[in-house]
Amino acid sequence: MKNKLIPITFLQTPTDKSNSINGLKRFWQKVYPIILNREKHFDNVWLHACEEEIFTELVFCLFTPQSKAVACWAAVNELANKNMIFSAAAIEIAKTITPVRFRNNKANYVIEAREFFTINNTIKIKEKLASFKNIYETRLWLVKNIRGIGYKEAGHFLRNIGIGKNLAILDRHILKNLKIYGAINEIPKTLTTKIYLEIEKQMQNFSKKIGIPMSHLDMLFWCKNTGGIFK
Length: 231
Hints:
The chain is about 60% helix and about 5% strand. The protein is built from eleven helices and four strands, in the order βαααααββααααααβ.
């Protein structure tokens, strides 16, 4: 089955060098329409995407650790265009996703996830994701059951499919900005589960304190540092 992908573009935004809370709020107001547009896109994925599209988002998040998001999405699109996501062997996938770091391991992760979510030769993922009582249980289940998915990747995936708005996606951009704005005291050398969850709570508290939603805060920090929003 050929996979139909929802197009994603890199939305250009003005950059901002202000490190004050008031400056951050002003920048949020400036880029608010762009962030809201992207958030609506994520919401529509869950509402309207088919099982294969949801799984494709998982593949993207399996690729992203230590690789550039834009390159990973390009790799996903190449797999989709060649009708490989749901049929190709790991070795074929690895040969195709050359921009993705650790591509042999990640190709194997795709195969394992594909087999895990296949029931009667059909991908079934949405019903399982919707079966938990809250998004934190959903994330934990993904971390425990899908090899190659940690807390960051699980949060990224759930946000991208429109059901993980209050989860933190703690990459270097987010951690750097959390420290700049005083939400955390220091950037940890390693992110254990305990530390990840502690920082997530601190980010949630910071979000409430300054009145910027968690889902917007994540994209806002990306805008501020990179001049755009991707996935």
